[in-house]
User: Fold these one by one.
Assistant:
Number 1:
Amino acid sequence: MTISCFSLLFCLPFFTFLTIHSKPVTSPYLSPTTIIPNYQNMLKTFKIFMYNPNDALTFNSPAESLFYASLQNSPFVTHDAEEAHLFFVPFASGLSTRSIARVIRRLREELPYWNRTLGADHFYLSCAGLGYESNRNLVELKKNSVQISCFPSPAGRFIPHKDIALPPFPKSNVPHALANRTARFLGYFGHSGVKESSFLVNELVNDPDFLIESESSDQLSYTERLASSKFCLFEYGGDVSRIGEALRFGCVPAVITDRPIQDLPFLDVLRWQEIALFVPVGGFKELKRVLGRTYGDRHEQMSKLGVKASQHFVWNEVPQPLDSFHTVMYQLWLRRHTIRYPRRE
């Protein structure tokens, strides 16, 4: 079999259903023995310096707005730039690239911090992400600084291992998972997880193993749909806002994609291949075969690990330990060691 991806790491989601373990995986974390000590260390020591914005900031997404508000009011913020590990560059959603370039130019000319690393110890919020530009200020911002964007990101606007994806912000509050969960359906399709006129909906609508939201909205509540399904299906590039809720209810996310996914939230924290299934775009029979095989071999363990990981997908008005805000901060903390470039004149 020929693998066309440039890195097996990025191809891994495509072959998740083929993964074979010599012994059971008991943690959803990439580094289960160090994450809690590191997290506690972050809480005690991590410092962020926030530049003052020129104008009041507005954001297009709730996740951006809540992250910014939480950061402003957090103990991570310091007014002493010399003790800061990272620097936050604030600008509003929808600001033109020309205006963003002026923001960076001002930082370069008026303060010493940008020039020490050419922006490598800086980060910024941009839900849609920045594209590649020729302006020097934008080039350094794009290539060196950490971008925090929304998931999923537009193609070509996310640099893996440098940038960070915000976990989706749910559209509605969902109560805690049901205590007695009985999965009756192989898969659940919600309108929020499926593109319009999806070929999968058209093929699976008459299959009794699958639950389609449009057909069940009068019979089952949303929480009951999640609790009664083994897999919750999403199409990458569509609305994935309920993927955290699926994890919380033990409904293993099955993400249908036509390309490797490089912008998963918490990609350097969680073992995504242990909590979700990534299925290449294909026909109905192949999808059902993959889901059925995974249910027989690994579903129970994936479901349990997904429930453990779901705490990181919860957004709170007042941040709580290990929630979305704190886990994004943890990813920033992991990026606090930067290369000090020589200053260019």
Number 2:
Amino acid sequence: MRTFLFMVLCAVLSGASSDSQQTDIETLMDNVVVLKVPVFMGSMVHVPLTCGGAFQNEAVFWKKNGQAFDPPLMGNQVQVLVEEMKGGNYTCHLSPSGEYLNHTMILIQLNPDNRTVILENGEGGHIHCSAPNYKGSFHCRWRRTQRRSDASVVLVKAERYMEDIPCELDANGSGVECQNTLCSYKEEQHRISLTVYIRSHARLEVYTKSFYLREIVRPAKLPNLHIIDGNVFKWDYPESWEKPCTFFGLQFEIKLVHSGHSCNSENQIMNVTTDVANYTVSIQPKKYIFCVRAQDKFTRGPWSHWSQCTVNKHNALVPGHCSQEQ
């Protein structure tokens, strides 16, 4: 009697588990379904596949990742057993070696999806975004880990307050360019939400980033840095920056470092901030590097990359000429 009850209980639990697993199958996009499986548990789930209504009366044969099933899997509507992370691309054909008809990609996502292995996690997270101004265009990038360098992007979604933002994937699959139709003078009320679906073989991972445009606007490198009378430095606003400059003002960080050091060096001679696009150096060193960069003076967002000028007072300097590294 106890054995019988045990068998009944196991059957009930098995049925409940199977039903629960069925609810974990989601359609991500056309021809792509996602099976969410528990992180610490093995799974065996039957996934229903359909070749298509137009092939209802055809002798349909199925393949997985280009390989025929043994014994053959036939029929317009079939079920395939997916074990653990062993998803793949299931194609249907008119015969074992015949014409391709349709396909379904089955991807596996761990649930919860908090053990990521595809993208590197650097300072600021997995995804890094920037914009040159407030016109609505922004670029987001990511870096694959060395062991998952073959990973490919399945889908990118960007939206702001239920409005889709069009994006175009970079040719190398390591970033995306998006264009939000936002008026430069309008204050942002809602954050931009970016979601990247990326797969390595059959494993799917989902990465998200949320931000205001004002948090990621980084001015371009300051152009036309030049020197006058040996100690007066001038530069221009970037061409890509918003106009008028009085409304979209920049502030500038100026740093002098010893010759041979980079602008990021902590071994500095002086460091000041100004709102005007010129600066007069009044110190005595004969050799130094003049560094300048910009940020939005009102939002205090990211700094631009450094523009720099190498000064050597032992050599005669012609007014307007500067030995500048681009």
Number 3:
Amino acid sequence: MRINARLFFLPQIELFEFKGEDLTDEEDGGIIRRIRKKGEGYSKPNEGALVDIQFEGRYGDRVFDRRELQFEIGEGDNYDLPHGLEKAIQKMEKSEESVFYLKPSYGFGSAGKEKFQIPPDAELQYEVKLKSFEKAKESWEMNTDEKLEQSSIVKERGTQYFKEGKYKRAALQYKKIVSWLEHESGLSEEEDAKAKSLRLAAHLNLAMCHLKLKEYSQALENCNKALELDRNNEKGLFRRGEAHLAVNDFELARGDFQKVIQLYPSNKAAKVQLVTCQQKIREQHEKEKKMYANMFQRLADKDLKSAATLRTSHTEDAEMKDEQNGVEDKAEIDTEA
């Protein structure tokens, strides 16, 4: 019996195209991309780029947002776009069409979005076409005047975000100032003073953002950077004290608040925090005293127990010896008889 058979070979498909490509830095699956149409070239939008997109947002089977939009990367919150979508757009090429799947932490989070009737902790899907974009200038492409001008602009933008409680967004703006001006050299006296003022404000504001976000090590780092620029800065000392206090470094916190009061006697907040530090230090000392007292008591009880055991052992040995001597004496009497 003869069987005619034809073999078919399917083209090889890259695994990430089937599963989707994880675009997150942490590789936590929070932003997954599936490319429907590849883009042109290799260039991609950067932070601050002006992008022109066409998109559709879905929650389940419902389309909740459909628009054509031109906006600057970093400003998406002003246009009701989740930060995960902005991050995804920065991975796109011109004319690319892709579908993005966002986990709640990259979408509208635990707050949801009332405007679109999106509940808390919702997973979202966006279909996006990147029609065109214009990259923002990188630091090395800007001269000193442009860096100073742009730093002033993003400082105001960061302050606005901070007032709205958008601390992560605010921090991104302040970080730009640091990246632009931290290593700038060859400045005139006037330019240097302005750059120093902007860097100082950026580090102080970054410290405040990180305190709000409970990122205390980063708050400390920025306080220290600010105090390198101005070692007696009132806000720098006070915020460093707050960061030390938050991680239970009460002695270091007390030192910072004492210095604030010494330099700025009218600072009432520092006086309140100093009282809190002193109270925490007393509580810590009492706790340590009790801990050591209990530890010594346990050691003493252990020694007493060991001594008692030793005495009992000696008594038993003595009694056993007496019994043995009695037996020997009786044996001698029996022999003599």
